[in-house]
Write a structure and sequence with these properties.
Strand content: 25-35%
Number of domains: 2
Structural class: alpha+beta
Number of helices: 8
Helix content: 25-40%
Shape: globular
Distance between the termini: 36 Å
């Protein structure tokens, strides 16, 4: 293992935040895998999993069982780890301006498309190398004028030329689920099967440019821009939601790390025997995911828990008016798996209370929560 410490742009004299990057296997070799944990810094189950991965990767490296290179960033957001407000950890949004740490990554396809046309040719393999080089150069040229932007640029620079990018998160109260691009459904379902995911949610663009799509989606965009050239989807990117915030056990972390290793083995990255279990679900469109939202303020009383299978018309929760005691029943419009719900039991109008992985809806716009 090689460990690198990257200093981020200092926000003020006397302060410094750094990223620790761990590299396993052969530097610069293919395939390249990039894995990071807790970009939303309050989603700490990911940190336990990356620590377990570090131990396992070190063992496999000592056995010569890693093909290519694995880049691991155990804690991807030192800024968010240090943010507290009135005694509460605030790891999802930048307290400086309210920006989401997992949104607003650079659109690299827009930066390279004009220069690529003259470089592409009839070989998909050659085109992959040309595009990777262009994306790498574009990421390296990104400019930052604040620490958060420097963090985002640095993470993108570490990952943009990888074959596989896994961004480890968790939800508030949820079952294991995965987000990925629609054209990469097969690999997404393999990843979901390895992890025991109960929902695999697919989109061609979820909105807001989250990290995984900043790495994987440029290939899809360039494929659509240059139909006359063979362009592979040469980067598989996925966001892995490691259940809920309270699911922080060593047992679960070890289980999830081993499952990720099984997936990497199935992709030819690791040489160790593994068998991916049968999937617990089929992939569904993210546009079919139904949010259950509060129409007014009130106390939330759930009738369903994460993992429950529901049908259209099922009662998901009651919303109790604090002044009158009147109960508003909240029912779902589509069937599917309730894969996540909020942790708070007081809701303001418009608050998203639960999410159902369905197929009958067709929402547009930004499909992921802010």
């Amino acid at each position: 293992m090689k460990t690198e410490t990257i200093a981020l742009l200092s926000p003020a004299p006397g302060t410094q935040q750094t990223l620790q990057v761990q590299r396993y296997g052969t530097s610069g070799a293919s395939p390249k895998v990039y894995i990071q944990g807790a970009l939303h810094a309050d989603e700490v189950p990911a940190i336990l999993v990356t620590q377990q991965l570090a131990r396992r990767f070190a063992e496999l490296e000592s056995q010569g069982a890693i093909e290519g290179e694995i880049v691991l960033v155990p804690c991807a957001n030192p800024i968010g780890l240090a943010q507290h407000n009135l005694g509460q950890h605030q790891g999802r949004f930048d307290l400086r301006d309210g920006g989401n740490f997992n949104r607003g990554f650079a659109h690299l396809a827009d930066l390279v498309k004009d220069s690529l046309r003259a470089q592409l040719g009839p070989s998909s393999t050659d085109n992959t190398q040309v595009i990777r080089s262009a994306l790498r150069a574009a990421a390296q040229a990104l400019h930052a004028n604040n620490t958060v932007q420097d963090l985002k640029n640095t993470l993108l620079q570490l990952a943009v030329d990888a074959d596989i990018v896994l961004d480890l998160h968790c939800d508030t109260d949820a079952v294991m689920h995965v987000y990925a691009l629609t054209p990469q459904a097969e690999m997404a379902e393999q990843l979901g099967a390895a992890l025991g995911a109960q929902a695999v949610l697919l989109a061609t663009e979820s909105g807001g440019t989250p990290f995984d799509e900043a790495c994987s989606r440029p290939w899809l965009v360039l494929q659509e821009l240059f139909p006359e050239f063979p362009v592979e989807l040469a980067c598989f990117g996925a966001t892995v939601e490691l259940r809920g915030e309270a699911d922080t056990s060593h047992v679960l972390a070890k289980k999830d790390a081993l499952a990720l290793c099984d997936f990497l083995s199935s992709q030819g990255v690791l040489r160790h025997s593994s068998a991916i279990p049968s999937p617990l679900c089929s992939a569904t469109p993210l546009a079919g995911s139904e949010p259950i939202t509060a129409p007014h303020a009130g106390v939330v009383v759930f009738h369903c828990t994460p993992g429950d299978v529901v049908v259209a018309g099922d009662l998901i929760a009651d919303l109790v008016d604090a002044a009158t005691g009147a109960i508003t029943p909240l029912v779902c419009k589509s069937g599917g798996v309730l894969y996540g719900r909020c942790g708070q039991r007081w809701a303001q109008p418009g608050k998203r209370l639960a999410k159902i992985a369905g197929t009958s809806l067709a929402r547009t716009g930004k499909l992921l929560s802010p």
